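tool=predict chain=A
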Amino acid sequence: MNKLLLTSLLFISVGVFGQAPGGAGARRPAGAAGQNMNMGHLYGKVVDNKTGKGVDGVSVQLLGNRPGRPDSSAKQGPVTLKAAITTAKGEFSLDNLPVMGNFTLRLSAIGYKAIEQKVSFGIKMGGGQGDGGGNQMMNMIDKDLGNIKMEQDAANLGNVTVTSTRAMFEMGVDRKIFNVDKNLTSSGQTATEVMKSIPSLSVDIDGNVTMRNATPQLFIDGRPTTMTMDQIPADIIDRVELITNPSAKFDASGGNAGILNIVLKKNKRTGYNGGIRTGIDSRGKVNIGGDLNLRANKINFFASGVYNQRKSKSNSTNDRTNLDKGVAASRVYQTGNPINDGYFAFIRGGFDYLIDNRNTVTLSGNYNRGNFKNQDFQRVDSFLIQDPSYNLVRQNSEGNFKNLGSQFSFKHNFAKTGHELTADANYNYSKNENLNFINTQTYLPPYIFKRSPVLQQSLGEGKTKNWTIQSDYENPIAENQKLELGVRATIRNNESVNNQFFFSDSSRKYELSQGISSSYRFSDKVYAAYGTYSLKLEKWNYQLGLRTESSNYNGSTIGKNENGDDSLASFNVNFPLSLFPSAFVTYKLSDKEDLQLNYSRRINRPNFFQLIPFPDYSDPYNLSVGNPALKPEFTNSFEISYNNNYKRGANFLASTFFKHNTNLITRYQYYDVNPDTAHHYSSSDSVLYNTFINANNSFTFGIELTNRMPVTKWWDMTLNFNLFNSRINVNDPKLENISNKRTSWFVKMNNSVKIMKTLALQLSGDYYARTVLPQAGGGGGGRGGGGGGGGFGGGPVATAQGYINPRYSFDIAIRKDWTWKGGNSAALTLSMNDFLRTQLYSTYSESPFLVQTSVRRRDPQVLRVNFAYRFGKFDLNLLKRKNNKADQGGGNDMIPQ
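tool=predict ok
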């Protein structure tokens, strides 16, 4: 009975269609014909053409014109009518299909060649189907396609290697993107080593990173972080983005430096996959790590962890001549051999919850901690004075740090592609503790005690809490126009304790020195809103933006004033509402070439450690003190870029830039007597003060050239050349006029050589010409959270007073890969940094008070062996959602099911 009823309905529908001429169907209620005719059923089995076994996880799509809308479908082309995934046996079934017309069946699977074939039910207009009657009609709408054979793709090695090779360098709208997940020389190390391979970045011997001779802001996954470069494992970094001239969408803070955004790995492929890795270096230090990703239904879970041991060895010399009215008055010569030994651990995890096709929430967090012990022995010789002497200084310090970060985000995709609303909240907490013992023994030549040893203990602690709340809205208001709006609030609280103790011969214990100990706390609040408007007109692209920011700064120090009296010194700075415009104009010269001009205005506000007027005595021979009279600096930046993808796999980028700073915050160094005469230091002892001043202005301009090219089929080379000129002008009656101008350049080279199919070699090198000492930039500098033995030589000296001598180095690595059917793979990497032992970091600085030369060498020729194994199954049956705009940016126009 049911069969007879279905047959009758089918004949009625066919008759109606046969009587409707042309587009008559358009006059019926929308969807009526589709509802009547969606009775077809196609099914079959996909098998391997060699083994005959069913193929699991094949994507099956049926393409055709949408029923009821033949005219629009003809104009737009075929759409996906149905889609399915084959079962473990290779079977598939597509039902509720339209029975009229011709269709295309599309099959695709990882490791197999795609198939397309024409299919139909063979039903013709008019209703006459021969002598078979109703039974024949029912057989026609229920069609078995039989066994469809798929051929393995030899070009894909016949297995499921699903990650395609990305170009090492890509050009974004407002940033340069460097994919570093395959970088060999940084395997098993930290983000510091990754930055050494990035064009346009300069990394000094201590791992300090500069971009265009200024310190950039560090972001992780697009948000500010309290972590430092040496706390981020290299093996979890996916790519590095350089935003040299940020638009109004980004924080205006950061002065003349740009933004360095580190994007961590996060696999969203359907199924489960993961990896484990381990390694050891020539100093016996190991690293071990792993990651796991699982995506099923509406949940995408990810987790990773790293444990890294490190041992750093350095040797250094510091030669300083103190001047009195331009004449050498004394000379101090220091040598040191510090050893830093410790570990850090990092874990990260989270999940994405796909509420529906248009809404996604993400919760993630990370935690890392570390412990490092430092030993240093220094000899300090004093010459050219009436009472020559020398000091033997032994330092033993221990530092602990921990960092906790969390993020909650929500994303809503509207029906229109590109129309979205996001909101997120971030929290970061960091804490560090430092304990430093300093034993200073003074001798008269040849080996006569001059006085009792000075035993000093520094105890420091720092805490930082950051909250960031942000919401962004994007709306493509027309085909060639887009509007972006956003608001942001950032709150940062910091506490720092720096206590100095000296050993008392009378009490036989360490006693707190109130006069040179202090503790601080401060709060920094920045509120911002921005808007950008983008317009595309033929070959022209325009983006205009405006950002407004206001900030409130409160800080206090509890302890002693300069006279040793009880006091509470506080700073309250309110920076009024300021406007920061930006503009980007891009002209597309051809399909492979474009030219861009951009401009932005930014601000760099002094931080608390640059403001406090109380000296830091962590290093008794290099004191640090703030300057409460500092003003914020403003930067106007211009940049012109030319990009040319001149052939497949090749890219050439040329950029020229100009920056003008007013009230540039820069380091300044001067020589004065040691105020701590209570602990055996006399007024004639040599002491360096490191502080900050506002330069009147500074100018920086330069050019950057980056070229990535395939030299041969097995050899890719990336060359980067940077030429820049820096000029800093200081005009202060107290300091005399200081002007430092220098043209400098550096070049980087990275070679990737494919020796054979599974064996690769990477060779990278860099050369830096004589360079002006980098600017403080980015609100950096100052004390790192309380006590604990500063770096040898007191860190970088004043920008307006010195330069870095030429230096160069080379790193090398070789990797062997294995790949097995099923998606599992392994790699063994052997690497060595500075393998020619050429990296020598030498600085020169001068002022009316001194002339100083410092030379350092750190960690040359360290050999590392690392092994990594990856596993996983990308099971497409786990994918239930057909149109996830959050991950795919859209999808096929599918008929509701």
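The chain has a mean pLDDT of 79. The CA atoms of residues 248 and 281 lie 44 Å apart.
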